[in-house]
Amino acid sequence: MGRPREHDETTRARLLRVAGALVEAEGVEGLSLRRLARRADTTTRAIYSLFESKEGLLAAMYHEMAAAMAAHHEAVPVSEDVTEELLALALAYRASALLHPTLYPLMVLKGGAPLPEDVALARRGFERVVETFARGVRAGVFRRGAESMGRQLFALVHGLTTCELAGMLGARPKRAWREAVSAMLRGFAA
Amino acid sequence: MGRPREHDETTRARLLRVAGALVEAEGVEGLSLRRLARRADTTTRAIYSLFESKEGLLAAMYHEMAAAMAAHHEAVPVSEDVTEELLALALAYRASALLHPTLYPLMVLKGGAPLPEDVALARRGFERVVETFARGVRAGVFRRGAESMGRQLFALVHGLTTCELAGMLGARPKRAWREAVSAMLRGFAA
DNA sequence: CGATGTTTTGCAACGACGTTACGTTACAGT
DNA sequence: ACTGTAACGTAACGTCGTTGCAAAACATCG
Predict the structure, then answer these.
(1) pTM of the model
(2) What confidence tens digit (pLDDT) does each residue in B39-87 have?
(3) How many CA atoms are closer than 13 Å to the CA of A50, on its beta-carbon side?
(4) How far separated are the first and last CA of chain A, in Å rounded?
(5) How buried is residue A43: exposed, middle or buried, by Cβ count under 10 Å (0-12/13-18/19+)?
(6) Which one-letter DSSP state was computed for residue A30?
(7) How far apart are the C-alpha atoms of A190 and A82, rounded to whole Å?
(8) Which of A14, A113, B69, B163 could potentially form a cystine with B168 if both were Cys, beta carbons 3.0 to 4.6 Å apart?
């Protein structure tokens, strides 16, 4: 019963696309619901019907980003060389962050609380790292404490991402990534 | 000539104090010039006279933060054990960030461009780290590349800070700091 | 001592923002 | 056909950062 929705899935997709372009072009502060509605040729009411609020819109953008990162992570094959696998996982994180350079800060900083499903998504990626560490521990490559090492590696990876996006990682950022992650993994050796 | 300023240095200090309290209590988005003026019992015009704009106010807050961090850094004594000294420098960074937990994000994320003097201030701390690395290289403790290692250590330290402030560093954050920094430094060994 | 010039101040307004109340519209069920 | 219900577009509300403007407070000069 009631009037059928006119703001359908295609408008939703269009809004997400235009919002991404806006953020990409002018940063998070350049995204306003009114401008977004104008650019997407619809009304602010449509955004409220589809996303509930601005926070909901940002959560949906977060979801796209989290899904992209999860896809990059799952594309990394399981290897016998756990060090190589962890390095590949870190570089996959880097690649997905660099794919949406201005969208990445959305994940970390403000924009409100992400949806539980997206937290679970991010957690899955983290647990993949912890499991890889655990395999390394069992193989005698690393010392004990897979979860601690996973947390610390994540801190490094996040810091590297932030620094690279800020242009503070020097002329050869990928090399810096390799060196930093390798150094930490060497330091984790049993 | 001209009307003498009534908005003096004490109002400026009070505004900075109240602004810090506001950010501390409700985050960066809770800081509005009108609320700040009301809480500090003055007018928005005073803020504009003293800080030029909201960005100028944030830059002044950034300056306080940067000065506190520099003080913490300079309090770390030069040691013959470069590894110990770098660990102490990292923990000094942590201590100053934890002193103003909600002010720290101001330094990294938005708020606009910090003043050149504050960039220089932050740069001095970074160069202290690079020099310590260089001493370690000369002593045969680390491999070559003092500046690269400094950048990578900074990325780790910043990532650890962000993660700890987000509560993602587990139950023993200081221990995680020690382990992570030590691991990276071990990995940098010659 | 009064007139003038210059700078700061308080106040009110401007445009833009996120959000919401409201009257209208379009359908489902009777 | 009538009524109830849900989604719609429009217009407003309150807040934000910022700015124009007239009044105010001094220094300087006639």
Answers:
(1) 0.91
(2) 999 999 999 999 999 999 999 998 988 899 999 999 999 999 999 999 9
(3) 23
(4) 65
(5) middle
(6) G
(7) 13
(8) B163
